């Protein structure tokens, strides 16, 4: 495994971002359904040879992993109605049927489509968030992490920010009334797989957005904590929830040079830089879901 004393560390490979759309049209009388997934496969295992010598004898091609995604989306149609179901089927397949694969990570972005005008086969893309899933299967078992990204929420009041630490670079003015907005990226790890994935996702989303709306905020950090607690209250299978929330700053524009009063009505929505508030809320101190979350290769 080593040459010149160098050592091959963790490696993984597979086809990233296979974009698959499945139509459910089995019953000619019934309205069609669709799912729309961007599926990434990452396999780890006995693959040192291909890195060290170029011997590909054990390499299941990334092309085959892509074809498996398409094939499974058809053959495992009922499981594929949820992104968790498809990801579990794929992860189990790669580990159970390819002996060189010791662990598989399947990540899915699920794009929503809403039925258009109650039409049986016309849809409008739902752009308000992307649902995400990361499933890891290894010899130790299987873990499922559900998530959401780009869930953009905003409230026009009930948000203050003051009393913060001062140093010589602190120039921010305290405020007792501001817009608070964020594009929530959250991931939550489940205990087990006996979960109604759609119902659980809906409960988590409702809890998060409800807590954002109803909690009075003295910092986005506090609101994240409120949202996390609401998620754990609403979804019994969730062990912990990890947030990464950009603080989308809204600055009140000074209109006085034009002789116009601005009573915190007109703002500049700044896209960058942004504060980034990240926190994990755990069901208890001894919850450790480290292996469930995708560390990626870039960290
Ligand atoms: O909710 C906030 N938290 C901060 O840590 C922070 N820092 C900042 O400049 N504005 C804000 N707002």
Describe this structure in words.
By secondary structure, the chain is an alpha+beta fold. The chain folds into two domains: 9-139, Urate Oxidase; 148-299, Urate Oxidase (Roll), CATH 3.10.270. Helices cover 22% and strands 35% of the residues. It has five helices and twelve strands. It has an eight-stranded antiparallel sheet with strand order 3-4-5-6-7-8-9-12. Strands 1-2 form a two-stranded antiparallel ribbon. Strands 10-11 form a two-stranded antiparallel sheet. A hairpin with an 8-residue loop joins strand 3 and strand 4. Helix 4 (197-214) runs antiparallel to helix 5 (220-234). The chain is globular. The mean pLDDT is 96. The structure holds uric acid (URC). Uric acid binds next to helix 5.
Chart the SSEs and their pairings.
Blueprint: E1 2-3, E2 6-7, E3 18-24, E4 33-45, H1 48-52, H2 62-75, H3 83-97, E5 101-115, E6 123-138, E7 141-155, E8 180-190, H4 197-214, H5 220-234, E9 238-247, E10 250-252, E11 267-269, E12 275-282
Antiparallel strand pairs: 1-2, 3-4, 4-5, 5-6, 6-7, 7-8, 8-9, 9-12, 10-11
Helix pairs in contact: 4-5
The protein binds uric acid.
Residues 161, 172, 219-221, 247, 275 line the site of uric acid.
